[in-house]
Amino acid sequence: KTSAARTWWHRQQQNIKHRHDAMWADAPQVSEWKENVKVEKRKEITNEVKCKKITECSSYEEFKDHVAAAFLKPIDLYGKNKGGGGEATSASAHDKNVSSLLEKETTADVCAKLAKELESARVSEVKCPTNSNQFDSDWRRLCKTDADKVSYLRKIPPKKYKSIFRVEGSLSVLGEIIDAFGSERKKSLTAPAKEQKLDDSVAELDGLIVATLKGLMRVKGIGMAIAFLEESEVEMAKTLCKQLVELGQERASIIGYTLEDVDHILEKLSEE
User: What percent of the chain has pLDDT over 70?
Assistant: First the structure.
């Protein structure tokens, strides 16, 4: 009897809900009002993104892309819970559709969650950039520390720099690259590690330094980029090159570069 009564009660509740939904669905004013609210909230989100990105984007195309995607559903960059275990990502803000977000969240909350999703990208998941705009965007968004910057530069084959920075004057972070290399090399030399492991780590970094600077020296308008370097940044680059020369050709050959490569970098730095 109790089970039958409970079933009857649930059916009555469902019937009431269906009648309620049907009644409101038939009201054109309510439907129109809901649509207007949704449109207005999308406009608010778009305007907030415009105000935020107008000072961050390096080109109009990049700005236009951000505005166009202002109210789209964020992408789950991981595919799984960050905690691991292989479980599917639980229903969270970035799994909800736009309509649901707009109905349940404030405009500020939606924008904050979208921004957080973008910031959660890891350098290891980023592909090699194809142009200077993409490089600058990744650099500003992901490379917060010297270690991040060096990790990002590892993603780029040295021969690609000439095509990435094919527009003269598009290389604007040469000084930051030099400072990051100097800082990370100093950190590697002073890190508490086993001798063999430490030497391998420094050798790999030395090879990256030479390959990257060699590739950047072939970029169109490199003279302008060097001219805008701070004196301390030029001295840092020269110091790195001189340290590599002092280590000798034998070590350079093992790592994969030549002293002629280092001398060429020094000549370029001294020309300006």
Answer: 70
In tens, the pLDDT along 115-139 reads 555 554 566 677 899 999 989 988 9
- Tens digits of residue pLDDT in 204-246: 999 999 999 999 999 988 998 999 899 999 999 999 999 999 9
The residue behind tokens 């720099």 is 161
**Quick check: 202 and 150 in contact, CB under 8 A?**
no
Burial of 98 per CB tally in 10 Å (0-12, 13-18, 19+): middle
What's the confidence (pLDDT) of residue 90? 41
Residue 58 class from Cβ within 10 Å (0-12 exposed, 13-18 middle, 19+ buried)? middle
Please give the model's pTM, rounded to 2 decimal places.
0.56
DSSP the chain: -HHHHHHHHHHHHHHHHHHHHHHHHT-HHHHHHHHHHHHHHHHHHHHHHHHHHTTT-SSHHHHHHHHHTTTSPPP-SSSB-TT-TTPBPPS-GGGS-HHHHHHHS-HHHHHHHHHHHHHT--GGGPPPPSSHHHHHHHHHHH--SHHHHHHHHHTS-GGGHHHHT-STT----HHHHHHHHHHHHHHHHHS---HHHHHHHHHHHHHHHHHHHHHHTTSTTHHHHHHTS-HHHHHHHHHHHHHHHHT-HHHHHHHT--HHHHHHHHHHHHH-
| pLDDT (0 to 100) of residue 111 | 62
Contact 54, 33 (CB under 8 A): no
CA dihedral 54, 58, 60, 64 (to 10 degrees): -60
